[in-house]
Specification:
The complex is a heterodimer of chains A (229) and B (439). Chain A has a single domain, classed as Pectate Lyase C-like (3 Solenoid), CATH 2.160.20. Helices cover 10% and strands 22% of the residues of chain A. In chain A, helix 1 links the parallel strand 1 and strand 2. The termini of chain B are far apart. Chain B is globular, with a radius of gyration of 22 Å. Chain B folds into two domains: 358 residues, TIM Barrel, CATH 3.20.20.70; 29 residues, no CATH class. In chain B, helix 7 links the parallel strand 11 and strand 12. Classes of the chains: A mainly beta (229), B alpha/beta (439). At the A-B interface, helix 1 of A face helix 4 and helix 6 of B.
């Protein structure tokens, strides 16, 4: 099990080592110590490995992740798991703005809170936040799901497309074209399945969540809707 | 008969025919005009500059004998694999979605034949353009449609798009009629809906964040790829300085004549700077920071001929980029299609409803029947011919100015025909030593 001390090893050297790993590598579990909020740690991974980071990370940790599991034992800065393609990223602490932004696949789990614009322009990623999310979360969200155990700030799901939003707590306000929708059995099953992939094995009751999504009234521009923007 | 002289009917210069037709159109429809292309109004431009050529005090090169280099290196600041293009002209970013797959392929073919680069656009990278583009620049746009790390790694350079000349500060809209199954799949959106392109990036705000974003892109690509930053011309001195600070290898500066697929006419015509007024402030920023020629400057917006290329280089750019002119070379607005343009309420040379997807030339459309009209091989050949002519013309002027490489052209080679152009280009008014605002 390789262990890398980022207090002594340059970030470039770490990321280059991680990028060189082939899909059938034997070095499948990496430990990174003393990240000290450095940016772009474990960005661009492309192999089915596990990377554990012991401490806080800066911007874009696990950015564009593909296949890998990245476990962050600390808080995460802006854009954690941005544009993730697949794999699993788990933040044990809080996450800053734009967590999971534009993510296209995989699961991002945040045990604490996520700041504003969580899931902005998400394109297929599933994001599970045990705490609350800030304003403009799921802005222009296209696909995937954002699941929030706590509350959501202003303008949730503004200009949303086909992403699915589930919030257990209070929603301060909904953004343009985002509405509450009925929580039918198929939605509860889907939510249960997604929570399972995030590591929640039946301890969360999907029926406690409300579902939000697009009213699809702004999908084609019409001058009569100009006031909605 | 009454011979009393009568007042000749007089049209208003302010309320001219076009303005009044727009008032009537707005009153009838209640919505602004959306169109493609760049600013159409008359603007100070490269036509307002002249080269002086050689004389007793300057020694020319023999036109058909002596070598005049045209190759340019891009991305020499940080990238481990900088780009080497054979001519100082690149193809600007235009999306699959706004353009047909055939058009994207033709752009790649044409650029590759003459040894230069082409650029993706909003919507991601298609196999056609990757396969036919020897040097391909991959755009990272606010929407991140189709963005994926595999394409990032197989690109030859990365261009972070902050803005474009036709609409600095604006996003975009690809109307539903151009959203085919393939476009919808690439952008992860339902077919047939209007696809908005955001005006701000989702995961960074401001130059300090941009620096970190660039660091991430470099880390993901192991510091191999040159990273460009593209900005619309609005505050070129500060934008250039901030792009340098953020770590750009190359800065792309797009003037308001630069085209767009679909934007409000009022935005295109009234926001931003003509490229003539943007180059010198950008070069000044590069020089002030000791980065001129270390960070390369590509300028675009209204480049039509080799004289335009030469003038842009003389003002301090390292290369130019073309979009609209490349589409014309492929066959856009061809008079041979006049009858079909008339059916669309336009004329050859005026057609700019690129967003509607009904382009009879098969370029700005996703209609498979219309798109099939464009032969990528033939259109690519036309583009290659055009790029060759631009290069030959640029060399002709450079030799006449005594330059053994086109990058050696300099402001001293130029004069301006108007006070405005002299002030913007910071070259003397013809026949004087006067540079307004400087001397």
């Amino acid at each position: 099990m390789p262990e890398v001390d980022l207090g002594a090893t340059p970030l470039r050297e770490l990321n280059a080592s991680l990028h060189r790993l082939s899909p059938d590598t034997n070095e499948r579990h990496w430990i990174i110590d003393h990240p000290a909020g450095r940016h772009a740690i474990a960005a661009g991974l492309n192999a089915p490995i596990t990377v554990e980071i012991n401490g806080p990370v800066g911007y874009y940790c696990a950015g564009m992740n593909k296949l890998a599991t990245v476990l962050i034992h600390g808080n995460a800065g802006v854009g954690v798991a941005e544009n993730m393609m697949s794999g699993f990223v788990h933040v044990a602490g809080d996450a800053s703005q734009s967590a999971g932004a534009t993510g296209r696949g995989g699961v991002l789990r945040i045990d604490g809170n996520a700041s504003s614009r969580c899931g902005i322009s998400m394109k297929g990623i599933d994001i599970v936040v045990q705490g609350s999310v800030g304003h403009m979360s799921a802005f222009m969200a296209q696909a995937g799901s954002l699941i929030v155990f706590g509350d959501a700030g202003d303008s949730l799901g503004d200009s949303i497309y086909e992403a699915r939003l589930f919030v257990r707590g209070r929603v301060k306000s909904l953004g343009a074209d985002c509405i509450e929708k009925p929580m039918r059995e198929e939605h509860k099953r889907a939510l249960h399945e997604t929570l399972g992939r995030a590591g929640f094995n039946g301890e969360i009751d999907p029926s406690e969540f409300k579902r939000y999504g697009s009213a699809r009234k702004l999908y084609n521009f019409h001058v009569d809707n100009a006031g909605a923007y | 008969m009454d011979w009393t002289p009568r007042t000749t009917p007089r049209a208003s210069a302010t309320f001219d025919e076009y303005s009044m037709s727009e008032i009537r159109r707005a009153a009838a429809t209640g919505i602004y005009d959306i169109r493609g292309a760049g600013a159409k109004r008359r603007l100070p431009h490269f036509d307002d500059l002249l080269f002086l050529g050689a004389s007793i005090s300057r020694y020319p090169l023999e036109g058909y004998r002596e070598k005049c280099g045209t190759d340019i290196w891009l991305g020499t600041r940080f990238a481990q694999q900088p780009i080497h293009i054979k001519i100082p002209i690149t193809i600007a970013g235009m999306s699959f979605g706004s353009l047909s797959a055939q058009a994207k392929e033709a752009l790649g073919r044409g650029a590759t034949q003459v040894g230069t680069s082409t650029t993706t656009g909003d919507g991601g990278m298609t196999e056609e353009e990757r396969g036919h583009s020897n040097i391909l620049v991959y755009q990272v746009l606010p929407s991140r449609y189709g963005m994926n790390p595999d394409d990032l790694r197989r690109a030859d350079a990365i261009e972070v798009v902050v803005g474009q000349g036709a609409k600095p500060g604006g996003g975009g809209m690809l109307l539903g009629q151009k959203i085919s199954d393939r476009v919808a799949e690439m952008r992860t959106l339902p077919k047939g809906i209007d696809q908005r392109s955001a005006c701000r990036h989702p995961d960074w705000t401001g130059p300090d964040d941009l620096e970190i974003k660039i660091e991430e892109l470099r880390e993901i690509t192991d510091w191999q790829k040159p990273i460009y930053i593209k900005v619309g011309a609005s505050r070129p001195y500060y934008d250039t300085a901030l792009a340098i600070k953020a770590g750009a290898d190359v800065i792309v500066l797009d003037g308001m004549q630069g085209g767009t697929a679909a934007t409000q006419d009022v935005f295109i015509e009234h926001v931003g700077l003509p490229i003539l007024g943007a180059i010198r402030p950008a070069v000044q920023a590069l020089q002030d920071l000791g980065m001129h020629r270390q960070v390369q400057l590509i300028v675009s917006g209204g480049i039509r001929n080799g004289a335009d290329v030469a003038k842009a280089l003389a003002l301090g750019a390292d290369a130019v980029s073309i979009g609209t002119a490349a589409l014309v070379a492929l066959g856009d607005n061809d008079p041979a299609l006049e009858e079909e343009y008339r059916k669309l309420g336009s004329h050859a040379g005026c057609y700019d409803d690129w967003h509607e997807g009904r382009d009879p030339a098969g370029i700005t459309t996703q209609d498979p029947v219309l798109a099939a009209r464009l032969d990528p091989a033939l259109a690519g050949r036309r583009l290659a011919n055009y790029l060759s002519v631009l290069t030959l013309e640029t060399q002709t002027i450079a030799r006449a100015c005594g330059k053994s490489h086109v990058r050696n052209l300099e402001p001293e080679d130029l004069v301006a025909l108007t006070v405005e152009a002299a002030a913007m280009a910071r070259v003397p008014l013809a026949g004087t030593n006067w540079i307004p605002g400087t001397t």
